[in-house]
Amino acid sequence: MENFSSKPTIVILLLLTTVSTADLTSKELDAAILVLQSRRYTLFPNAISTSDLQVRLLSSQNSSIFTLFAPPDSLLFSLDLLSSARLYTFSLFLHVSPHFLSSSDLLALPRPAFIDTLLPNRRLFVEHAMSTRNGTALLTVSVDGVVVSVPDLFLGSNIVVHGLDGILVARYGSLVSEGSDNAIAEPPKFPYQTYVCQPTGDFAPYGPGDGHNRNANQER
């Protein structure tokens, strides 16, 4: 039951990508941000609004549907304090996949599976695991080892948001300097075959000023 060819998986993700034909609108993105804020995920939506991520989400150049993985405020605040602006921006893009993946979609992915992110050449490893909550056994999903603790926090027409138990941090390859305009994050090292459709495009996840207002989070 665990042996799947790559062809069915590619078909699944291509179908997920083409389900919606309309672009993500600012109204739908604002609705997702309001839900995040109401569930105490405040710094991630603030980071979206004050970085190039918002522009990328509302641009149909590469994709019009997205899945967002929201990290807890405390961990995002610590990352903001301890990392450079560029690494922080890279990490934000690592929390976004250019596919519409609800919790049921994530659970339906064959194992092993990787999903694309907005960070070029960087994918997230998706795992399924059993966990216990209040004495009840539950099948949970994790991305790069971080548990999706609040699945389907927001489900729209073009965007889905999940809450995370931790945070995803971009890593630089040993041959890439932090100041390089063509920086490539180091891919995760798993002894599995990658079953995903091709990345949506090669583009730098940052713009003038790194697209990051570091004072925005500190003011909250």
UniProtKB/TrEMBL annotation:
SUPFAM superfamilies: FAS1 domain (SSF82153). It comes from the Eukaryota. Residues 1-22 form the signal peptide. Gene3D superfamilies: FAS1 domain. Keywords: Glycoprotein, Proteoglycan, Signal. The keyword Flavoprotein does not apply. Residues 28-168 form the FAS1 domain. The keyword DNA-binding does not apply. InterPro entries: FAS1_dom_sf (IPR036378), FAS1_domain (IPR000782), Fasciclin-like_AGP (IPR052806). Belongs to the fasciclin-like AGP family. This is FAS1 domain-containing protein. It comes from Gossypium darwinii.
